[in-house]
Write the structure tokens for this entry.
Amino acid sequence: MISSLLQYEFLQNAFFTGIMIGLIAPLIGVFIVVRRLSLIADALSHITLAGIAASMLIEKKISSVQGLNPMYMGMLFSVFGALFIEKLRKVYKHYEELAIPIILSGGVGLSVVFISLANGFNTDLFSFLFGSVTAVSRLDVWTILTVTIVVVLAIYLFFKELFVLSFDEEHAAVSGVNAKSIHFLFIIMVALVIAASMRIVGVLLVSALMTLPVAASIRIARGFKQTLIFSIIFGELAVIGGLIAAYYLDIAPGGTIVIFSILILIAAIYWKKLKLSFGKKLQGVE
């Protein structure tokens, strides 16, 4: 595996990209879970798929447009979808959760229409749906690196504001936090992370990488910062383990990454139970 990694550029691209995705997906996922917006990742992933399908349709129907990277169109659709979710949340003030299924349904509908117009699925589209080790180009690596730097820098600079806003929006407003701007920044970051993750994890599975490592870390972490650290560790373990398994089994990495994430979650749940059981036994001995 190591010799192949040193020899083949596509493997280097996949692992560099995977390591970056393993960092930013759980990092932004912690704030998503805390804010009880877990399903937003599913909604934006489906609207991202619509952007990818639209890009492939344009390239197929317009001969003068060739070499268009579907990731950019996916990012564009994802950002617009995120902004539209915010708009709908304001329209339905007492039913804010309606915004997510509306966008999810719209994304699925657009995807089906664009795919039908493009005369069905092709190999490239399947690689975006479920991830691919071989499909990651050097341009994708640089694009995802840019997204990673932007997300990490934004969270570092606005960590306090994001933290307060995630737990108590009213307190954040009273404390002088510009809730509207911070929430706008946050939703854009979510859209970019989802679009960036689709090459490795796949559009249909990216939400799992944003939530499963967080779910595992919540079981064993003490405090928010520990949850953040454990989420990133679990995310990296899932991505690296999933990529290695996908390489040897010659399958799409998205599924193996999700399976590793689930195994980590199960281990965390049972670790918590064993720890509590062991603690009770010690108390009984005393």
In short: The mean pLDDT is 81. The chain has one domain: 1-203. Residues 253-285 form the longest helix (33 residues). The two ends are 51 Å apart (CA to CA).
